[in-house]
Amino acid sequence: MTAIAERPVGPAPGPQGDDRLPVKMLNDRILVGMGEAEAERRSAGGILIPATAQVGKRLSWAEVVAVGPNVRTIEHGDQVLFNPEDRYEVEVRGRDYIILRERDVHAVASERLDQASTGLYL
After folding, report:
1. Helix, strand, coil shares of the chain as percentages rounded to 5?
2. pTM for the predicted model, two decimal places
3. Which domain holds residue 25?
4. Disulfide check for 71: which of 27, 49, 67, 80 has CB 3.0–4.6 Å away?
5. Do 30 and 88 form a contact (C-beta atoms < 8 A)?
């Protein structure tokens, strides 16, 4: 099954050593980092859309940084699709992260997934 992911989270190491804080997620929790794409977007026509613009029910992608021991289908480094309204935000060493439950994730994108994987819980 999936092993517990204990990944260092935070900025890259400084000249004095490793400044990162180890984070161990519990149960079915997933820690994801949002990219800079959440701040501003460009439309297909090249129009810049600011982060403050109201957008209807739009789902967001984020990269998985750490997973809890009971997470079954998501691994570190995967991209996950989720509703940005159903989240908890946390700051670790000056960087913002989001904590999700596995059941709040709508889709997973990863090169390791094959076509036979349905993602259904049977």
Report:
1. 5, 40, 55
2. 0.64
3. 1-10+20-35+58-115
4. 67
5. no
